[in-house]
From TrEMBL:
GO molecular function: dipeptidase activity
Keywords attached to this entry: Dipeptidase, Hydrolase, Protease, Serine protease
InterPro entries in the cross-refs: Class_I_gatase-like, Peptidase_S51
Organism listed in the record: Polaribacter marinivivus
Protein name: Dipeptidase PepE
Gene: pepE
Top-level taxon of origin: Bacteria
Pfam families linked to this entry: Peptidase_S51
Entry's family note: Belongs to the peptidase S51 family.
Amino acid sequence: MKKMIIASTSTIHGSGPLEYLLPTLSTFFKEVNTVLFIPYARPGGISYDEYTEKVSVPFAKINIKVKGIHEFENSKEAIQNAEAIFTGGGNTFELVNQLYKNDVLLTLKNTIKSGTPYLGTSAGSNICGITMMNTNDMPIVYPPSFTTMGLIPFNINAHYLDPIENSTHMGETRETRIKEYHVFNETSVLGLREGSWLEVNNNNIILQGELTARVFQQGKAPYEIESGVEVAI
């Protein structure tokens, strides 16, 4: 039975890393002593050690230790034996590239499906969908495939931004880019705004947080889902 928190971001404006999620995580990880952290996305190119140390700070507030996957000799065994798993944000292309390079994507998927609690933020949320094709990141590396875990039946566009009224910026909006995606692809996309997350219990997916989320489907007008409502797309 899948137990997942799929969050748009780790940090919202005016608060520290994971601070807005800690009340939820203290319950979600209530029986967990140590979380296995996957730092492959490493934002800003920081080292795996630096990223793991940074993540350890908020988890210490709820009395949970953090161990980086790179600290283990056998990555597959580390995933299979984990009490819980957290994949952080950064560059989704590099995250997916490393998951394939280390041959752990399928292991991660199967471990989560078997019931190991999983937290994803940003890039770590993008990989929960069918593909990573709705990431906002630059393609700094070329992973073997864009196919990801498919633990939810749609793709995530993390950090979804609405058009800014009266903006003079002439570039594409996030909505425009997703419409471009749907010219060639059928998979639905959920635009997940900052401070929002999905709570997954097996096949039940509930939107949480204070904001709505925006649903995009090929050939249909986008629409909003209210917080507290099941996401069935």
